[in-house]
Design a protein that fits this description.
Blueprint (H helix, E strand, L loop, with lengths): L6 H8 L7 H12 L2 H8 L3 H28 L9 H25 L1 H8 L2 H13 L5 H17 L12 H25 L6 H21 L9 H26 L4 H7 L2 H14 L5 H17 L8 H5 L2
Keywords: Membrane, Transmembrane, Transmembrane helix
Protein name: DMT family transporter
Family: Belongs to the EamA transporter family.
């Protein structure tokens, strides 16, 4: 007598949901983070103050999410475990990145600072090649010059940089932030276990609060009573830019090659331009609009096909 699969089993298999495309997660996270320079400017706080409050106000939301995720992953006995110490180191770098970038926003402007910090698009794949031995696809190498040119246009560099308060200092701060940013993204990917999103972001955010407080205390100070208006803007920044943005990016980057993920993150300056129009009434020039089009086209070219990291890459140390 031949046994056939039960209708329940067949229905279960048929209704199994496919995971979301990691590129969509990374795009959504990038657009959330694109709000960051606008909210930071509206808060009117120092670099250390903005970053410390951004992290602390995000933790009450992130911690329950991390606990729920941990309860779910504990059920899988054979599930691979992450390396939390790598996530902590990455979080320390994240605190440096956000504090330095906030300083760059004040010194050189939101658009140009966002352009400069996105040189991580080159630094991240280079680090992945050196640390993980991950190969860089030829299509990415072809798209990099186009992407960087488009980001430069979108940030307003073609217009001379505007009335920046201190363009030299702002450039240095943004470039240092880019190095820290790339290090954070790589360590978050290497240190997180498969399926983890909220837990690593929560741990990294707590570590970022520590490093940003130390750096901020030494540089322009940390104001623990910035006022309710500033706290309100920073709370919105924590919810959208920190909780939603980084969790979405963590979920997407874990299943994407570093070059593809870094390319998608270049949508941040484009999103900043669009949101600046909608929120602050800052209408871009024709050069900036052209840059937006170039960036979107280059990102679509570099990320047109998803390639999962190989098992060897995923476990390399």
């Amino acid at each position: 007598m031949t046994l056939s699969a039960s209708p329940a089993a067949s229905g279960t298999a048929a209704t199994t949901r496919r995971p979301l495309d990691p590129r969509l997660l990374a795009v959504a996270g990038s657009l959330c983070i694109a709000l960051s320079p606008i909210l930071i400017a509206l808060s009117g706080t120092s670099p250390g103050t903005a970053t410390v409050f951004r992290c602390l106000l995000a933790l009450p939301v992130l911690v329950p999410m991390a606990l729920l995720e941990r309860r779910r992953t504990r059920a899988a006995v054979d599930a691979p475990r992450g390396r939390p110490w790598l996530v902590v180191v990455g979080g320390l770098l994240l605190g440096l990145d956000m504090t330095l970038w906030t300083g760059a926003i004040h010194a050189v402007g939101a658009g140009v600072s966002t352009v400069l910090v996105n040189v991580q698009v080159v630094i991240l794949p280079l680090l992945a090649f050196l640390v993980l031995g991950e190969r860089v696809r030829p299509s990415f190498l072809l798209a990099v010059p186009v992407m960087l040119g488009g980001v430069a246009l979108a940030g307003g560099l073609a217009d001379g940089g505007g009335d920046a308060a201190d363009p030299v200092l702002g450039t240095v701060l943004a470039l240092l932030a880019a190095v820290a940013y790339a290090g954070y993204l790589l360590l978050l990917r290497v240190g997180s276990a498969p399926g983890e999103k909220s837990g690593p972001v929560t741990l990294a955010t707590a570590a970022a609060a520590v490093s940003s407080f130390v750096l901020g205390s030494l540089w322009e100070g940390v104001d623990l009573t910035p006022g309710w208006t500033a706290i309100g803007w920073l709370a919105v920044l924590a919810l959208i830019g920190q909780c939603m943005g980084w969790v979405l990016i963590a979920g997407g980057m874990a299943r994407l090659p570093s070059s593809t993920g870094a390319s998608i993150l270049l949508l941040q300056p484009v999103g900043a331009v669009v949101l600046g129009m909608l929120v602050l009434g800052q209408f871009p020039t024709a050069w900036q609009l052209a840059g937006c089009v170039v960036v979107i086209g280059a990102v679509a070219f570099a990320a047109r096909r998803r390639v999962e990291p190989s098992p060897e890459d995923a476990v390399a140390s």
